[in-house]
């Protein structure tokens, strides 16, 4: 068995649809690891219902961690897998089209070039009642992970944890960074898990990503935590990995930090931006940044 599918379980509402999408896979060479985050909702009847059709390992954790650290819950779920070489973390509300796992095995068994250590499916967003919210998001078959990040920052595409399969060895090497709400934790992971190399896309297979007011991305009452996570993510990118990005890519990342600064107007953010401009950009770019501050305060 090469693939572990890890499901951090908490809500029952869409969980059966997630399991049914796994039952429907044309290639069932995977094991499902379900980590119950001390949920008040009982998923055992559903697990028993599909246990003959899926290879399932279920574990209930008595302490809820997802409310304080989603990453901590992901990591204790992952710690329970066996020796699978590849893994994915599938949300208990997302679904996979029936050819997804088959497309993955077709890639790793037949692709002649060195394999990417991060693989993704094409995606589309669906609503709580399974209506399509977007058309399918396709990607280049092979794309530098930094290029993809910049496309996402420009809002030319989207990304979420459930659409990725990644190397277990790379996960062990890097782990997930524990940002608030795990917001951008997946973005950083897939830069690191790919060693800032290429991500391979299986455009013939689609992951359905559910958007609802029950999900972190669908809620609008957590904007402060998302902003904090974004600040930590962008700051880490330039502090630790500035040499992985071109001048124009660094400029785009700095623009994201500047947008946060003009909201919170914290001296800490200003000092960080000053260092980034002077160390990684140019005196002219820093002058323009100061000019934007003056204009902003006048307005």
UniProtKB/TrEMBL annotation:
<protein>
    <recommendedName>
        <fullName>Glycosyltransferase 2-like domain-containing protein</fullName>
    </recommendedName>
</protein>
<feature type="domain" description="Glycosyltransferase 2-like">
    <location>
        <begin position="5"/>
        <end position="110"/>
    </location>
</feature>
<dbReference type="Pfam" id="PF00535">
    <property type="entry name" value="Glycos_transf_2"/>
</dbReference>
<dbReference type="InterPro" id="IPR001173">
    <property type="entry name" value="Glyco_trans_2-like"/>
</dbReference>
<dbReference type="InterPro" id="IPR029044">
    <property type="entry name" value="Nucleotide-diphossugar_trans"/>
</dbReference>
């Amino acid at each position: 068995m090469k693939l572990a599918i890890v499901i951090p379980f908490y809500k029952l509402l869409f969980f059966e649809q997630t399991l049914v999408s796994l039952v429907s896979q044309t290639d069932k060479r995977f094991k499902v690891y379900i980590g119950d985050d001390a949920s008040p909702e009982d998923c055992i009847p559903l697990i028993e219902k599909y246990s003959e059709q899926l290879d399932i390992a279920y574990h209930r954790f008595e302490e809820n961690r997802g409310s304080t650290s989603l990453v901590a819950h992901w990591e204790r779920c992952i710690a329970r897998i066996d020796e699978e070489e590849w893994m994915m973390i599938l949300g208990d509300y997302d679904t996979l089209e029936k050819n997804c796992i088959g497309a993955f095995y077709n890639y790793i068994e037949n692709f002649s070039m060195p394999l990417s250590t991060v693989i993704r499916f094409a995606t589309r967003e669906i609503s709580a009642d399974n209506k399509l919210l977007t058309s399918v998001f396709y990607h280049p078959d092979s794309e530098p992970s930094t290029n993809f990040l910049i496309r996402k920052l420009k809002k030319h595409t989207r990304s979420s944890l459930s659409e990725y399969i990644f190397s277990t060895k790379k996960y062990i090497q890097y782990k997930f960074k524990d940002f608030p709400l795990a917001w951008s934790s997946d973005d950083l992971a897939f830069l690191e898990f790919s060693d800032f190399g290429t991500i391979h896309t299986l455009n013939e297979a689609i992951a359905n990503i559910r958007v609802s007011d029950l999900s972190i991305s669908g809620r609008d009452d957590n904007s402060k935590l998302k902003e904090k996570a974004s600040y930590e993510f962008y700051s880490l990118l330039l502090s630790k990995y500035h040499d992985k990005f071109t001048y124009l890519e660094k400029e785009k990342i700095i623009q994201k930090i500047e947008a946060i600064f003009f909201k919170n107007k914290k001296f800490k953010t200003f000092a960080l931006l000053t260092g980034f401009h002077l160390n990684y950009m140019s005196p002219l770019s820093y002058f323009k940044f100061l000019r934007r501050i003056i204009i902003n305060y006048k307005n």
